[in-house]
Amino acid sequence: MHTEDRARFKKIGEKGDAKLHGKTVAVAGIGSVGSSIATILAREDIDLRIVDMGRVEETDMHRLALFYEEDITKFKVKQAKARLAAINPKVHVKSFHEELAGSNIFLLEGDCIVDATNNDDINRLTLVHAAKKKYPLVMVRCSGAAVRILVLHKSVSAKILDKVALPPTEKDGIFGPATTLAATIAVTQVMRSLLGDKQNLLIACDAWEPKVKITKL
């Protein structure tokens, strides 16, 4: 079901649908959070640019909603592109099987950037790149049941990344439902940004407790 025949959410409406038409979101990291974000955006008729160097791992399958067993060991972006095309053939998806670095950060271009890499080095790169290009940035970090989401429409110091820091996943693991929670909140912030909302926020939540704290920046 796509824009023209679905029941519209009143806060978006026909004007919002028209404003969202033709928008592109760049998603860095197509793991559990990033692939869920891409799936939701594709269902909302948002075009995508997806970047990831990894393969689908069997140990991650319990929290990889977009992928199937036959995708295991295959490149994430290639399989994600095929799965997203099956979900919504109208959506344009450009995929890049690359490890993001300073030399190719330009791959992240569009009307909004989502950094779902859970990687300190890439977070720093996307923070600078988004500010330079004046792209809205939604950054997502997950560890255990904890989620941190940074929503930025302005240039800020790299010290802001301390606010989204979480224990390494090697220590706390990742609670599957937390990735779904993170993706849902992140997509909401992406769509609000695409519709003109310029709030700068830090959203901290926990899928196990549950609790949510929102700080305006």
Please tell me about this protein's structure.
The chain has 217 residues and is an alpha/beta fold. It has one domain (3-216): Rossmann fold, CATH 3.40.50.720. Helices cover 32% and strands 20% of the residues. The chain contains 6 helices and 8 strands, in the order H-E-H-E-H-E-E-H-E-E-H-H-E-E. It has helices spanning 13-20, 32-43, 76-87, 120-133, 169-172, 176-194; strands spanning 24-28, 47-51, 93-96, 112-115, 137-143, 146-152, 201-206, 211-216. The chain has an 8-stranded mixed sheet, with helices on both faces. Helix 3 links the parallel strand 2 and strand 3. Helix 2 (32-43) crosses helix 6 (176-194). The longest helix has 19 residues, at 176-194. The chain starts with 12 loop residues before the first helix and ends with a strand. 40% of the residues are buried. The mean pLDDT is 94.
CATH topology: Rossmann fold
Mean pLDDT comes to 94
Runs in which pLDDT lies below 50 for 5 or more consecutive residues are none
CATH top level assignment:
Alpha Beta
Shape: globular
Taken as a percent bin, the fraction of beta residues is 15-25%
Named at the architecture level, the CATH assignment is 3-Layer(aba) Sandwich
Number of helices: 6
Mind summarizing the main beta sheet? 8 strands, mixed
Counting structural domains, the number is 1
The strands making up the biggest β-sheet line up spatially as 3-2-1-4-5-6-7-8
Structural class, please?
A: alpha/beta
CATH level-4 homologous superfamily: NAD(P)-binding Rossmann-like Domain
Q: Helical residue percent?
A: 25-40%
Q: Radius of gyration, rounded?
A: 16 Å
Number of strands: 8
Question: Which sequence of SSEs, written as H and E, runs from N to C?
Answer: HEHEHEEHEEHHEE
Distance between the termini: 37 Å
